[in-house]
Every structure is written in C-alpha cells, then in structure tokens.
Amino acid sequence: MNDPVSFATEFHPSSSPIFFVELAILTLLVITSIAMLRMRRLFGVVMLSGIYSFLSAAFFVALDAVDVAFTEAAVGAGISTVLMLSAMLLTARREKPYAPGHAALAAVVCVIVGGALIYATLDAPPYGDAAAPANSYVGQAYVDRSVVEISMPNIVTTVLASYRSFDTMGEVAVIFTAALAVMLLLGIGSDRGGKEVRDVPRLVGREEEAQDLSGKPNLDDGGKAPSPKGGAS
Amino acid sequence: MMGHLILRVVIKLLFAPILLFGLYVQFHGDYGPGGGFQAGVIFASAFILFALGFGIKETQKRLPPTVLPFFMVFGLLLYALTGVLGLFMGGNFLDYYVLAPDSHHNAGQHIGILLVEFGVGVAVFSAMMTIFYFFAGREPEIHDADW
Domain boundary residue among A96, A116, A147? Predict the structure, then answer.
C-alpha cells in the first residue's frame, strides 16, 4: 500500500507494448464470435468456440492472470470442446435455418442492454488502476498477509484453498452435483454409459411404428432397450 | 479399426506425459500456477484424448465407469473431512493451523491446502470423466463423415 496513487499515475497501459497484444487478441475474439454467429455447420461452431477459449486464455496471460488462463485453456478449450462435440453427435450437424420472427424486438433489447453495459463501464475504474476498489481493500490484504500467514508463493492458491476455502468446497460440490445430474438424466440405472443405446421414440398407441424405428441393426441389444410399451401409460 | 494411425501413435506417446503434467500441476500448485481444478481437468483430458483415438470402449476397459462415483465422493469427502478434522482438533471448520499448531512456517496451512487441493483434483477428474462417459457413450463412434 505504499502510495497507490503515484503508481497509478506512473502506469500507462495504453503505452506499454502488451497493450497492442491485448488489442490484437480482443480483435480476434470479436472476429471469432462473429464467425461463430454466421456459421451454420455446428462442427465449425464447436471448433471456433475452442479457438475462442484459447484466445481468452492468451488474453488472461497478457493480463498476468496465469491461473485463470490455465483453467480457461484446460476447461474451455479442452473439456468443453469435447463435450460440445459429443453433444453435437446426439443432435443435428447443422443449425436450423434462421426463421425471421421477433428480429426488431430482439434488436431493441440488444441495443438497450448493450448500451447499459457500455454506460456502466464508463463508471468503472481505469484498467490497471492500483487504487481501484478491487485492488485496494481485501485484495491488497490477501497480498500483504498471505506471505506471513500462509507462506506460500502462489497467492491464488492461498486465497482459493485457505482464505476462501469454504467457497471452494461449494465449487467442488457444484461440480459433483453437475456430474450427478448428468448421471441421473442420461441413465445411471441401466448403466448404459458407453454401450450402444438407441432411444426409442415414445409413441403412445403407435407401437408398431415405433418398432420400425428401433429396428435398426446392431443397435438394438436384444430387448434391453426401453420398450415403448413399458414407460408411458 | 486401423484408421488414424498417426493420431493413435501420437496419443500413446502423449498419454503418460499428460498424466505426469497433471500430477505436477496438482502438487506444484502451491508454488506455481495450477491447483486441483486444473490438474483434475488435465488428468481427465488425457483419458478423453485416449477415448477420441481408441474409442470409448477401450477407454472404459482401462478406467471403468463404475469406479468414478467412488472417486467423486472420495474427493468431496476428503475436502469436507479436512474441514471437520479442523473442528475435531479444536479449531474452526476448515481451519488448517490446528493441523500443525507448533509450526513456525505455517506447516498446518501447507498440509491443509495439499489435502484440500487433492480432494478437488480427484473430484474434478472423476466428475469430468463421468460427464464425458455419459455424453459420449450414447453414440459409439465418431464416424469419419462427421469430421
């Protein structure tokens, strides 16, 4: 806390060379998102979302947030891309053609929300401001005290696992619950994760038609697949 | 089944180093970037990479989906019980100082953070693998036409 004001006046983010790197990354982020909006092939959209995550990770590195960049690269670019790919395999490969509907209303909502967000950023402290509330009170306290109290070089870990340990336990519980929900939704009882499975469309009163649909070879594992007669009543 | 030969060889070469890197991120998180979350995801990504190259059945032979719920519960419980251990040793919930009260260099904090991060890593790894198995297991293979 040795005179944050003088530090703030010395630090000119717009004149440092990293500023241009950040500008380039942000431009690429905008281009990627526009390309994602315009692309109709979902495979390409998934790949672009992976690229978006990698660009975000690069941006976080430029902001000196290495831990966040690490997480973004691993989760956003790695796991999410694979999960989106496997989710895409369960649905169509192409996005449905755009149906004009409430375009005017949507545009109005977008402009209002976007304008409000831009207006809100005008009140935010400038980037890199050492006197900003996020950098001065509790954040500064963590930086000052964690060396003495925990003596670990990585302050992010001390905040995550010690100062805010209770929050992190909640996060682990959230991930646990997410996996549990996926297990319950996608069928834990039949333990069919990994086995060929074919969801028979449940057509009440039209069993014969449903049988025709499920009669594809190699996929019907001999009556184990849920029968249309069994469920809905 | 012998398509993508180069991919498979590369995946086999990369598999062990990715696991090693995951362990490094897990246990070096106190000193460098990383921690349980990242390590769990990296560990899971090694197996997911294997599944992309060799199919989900081969992966499930190596890492059966039935053990994953136990890992998930173990990770979460390791975290919570570390907190309860603090209670039993006379401190608050998730108070690590009481784990090594006589230490002059905060060894209790180090032990606590190590245990807790290990719990996070195990839980995240098994949760990611569970989600992947249940999503990808519904469609046996990625057909070449889909690429």
Answer: A96
pLDDT digits (tens, 9 = 90+) for A79-137: 899 888 888 877 778 887 777 777 889 899 999 999 999 999 888 887 777 788 877 88
Both tokens assigned to A8: 């703030």
Inspect the interface and report whether the beta carbons of B109 and A162 lie closer than 8 Å.
yes
Q: Is B109 close to A173, i.e. CB distance below 8 A? A: no
pTM, rounded to two decimals: 0.77
- The answer to whether position A157 is within a domain reads no
Find the residue in B nearest to A195 (Cα): B137
Q: Which residue of B has its CA nearest to A161?
A: B113
**Residues of chain B contacting residue A75, judged by C-beta atoms under 8 Å apart:** 37, 41
Nearest chain A residue to B37 by CA: give it.
A71
Residue where a domain stops, chosen among A96, A112, A139: A96
